Amino acid sequence: MTDYLAKPAFVVGEIDEDLNLSLPPTSGEEYIKRVVIEAQKCADIVVADIDRKHFGKPTIDVEPLSGCMEAPPWLGPSLDWQLYQVSDFSNIRLYISQLKNEIQSLKRKWKRPKIDMPSIDDEKGWIKFCSSNDKEKTRIAPTLDIIFCLNHPEVEQILEYLVEHIETLEKIEYELGQWIYALLVVLQMPLTPDTCSCLRSLARTCSIMRAKSKKLEIHEIGALNLFICLVARYFRQLDLADP
Hints:
The protein is built from 9 helices and no strands. The chain has helices spanning 2-6, 28-41, 79-104, 123-130, 144-148, 152-166, 174-185, 193-211, 218-234. The longest helix is centred in the middle third of the chain and has 26 residues, at 79-104. Keywords: Cytoplasm, mRNA processing, mRNA splicing.
């Protein structure tokens, strides 16, 4: 293919370099020869001399997204622990996938639960639905019946709501952690760019919470380590992985 592109499109014969370029060409062949002569005089690479003094300063400071914050030595998970969690998570995903296939093929009976769930456009409603609220008793645990009610775009959207919400918190509440884990279990691969960005935000947020973990309990640290591990090692965002 490269050799074909290197062949000349026109056969112009021998080129007289002493051709008087100030006179108009007398034929089409002579015009092509003039083009070839002019092209030979051009440099292969041209670098512009840019005067940066004329550039205005940016009005918005844009900070590039960094990876996860390194865990304090006494809080980081071992590699064996991470590999075990990935294996366990993979087995759970396989089991849930088999259940869904059996329901769709009518091999397993399933009845849609009678639960009033928020509209998929109701971000605040979903955050309230998935969060602890002892006064109003509105929090619903993520059971398989509820998860199976959601199609994949809804799973992605709710996960995005919850990840954006925990970015404003100092820790991940137990109920929110349950929902995030359940949504990750049914999250389909390959990931869309938006969902990949969402998962990376989840891992970064968990790493920041972990680095500031003066008031967190052991099980809360474990949940943060787990989400970082799953995002990095199961969903293949390996640059975010703990060593």
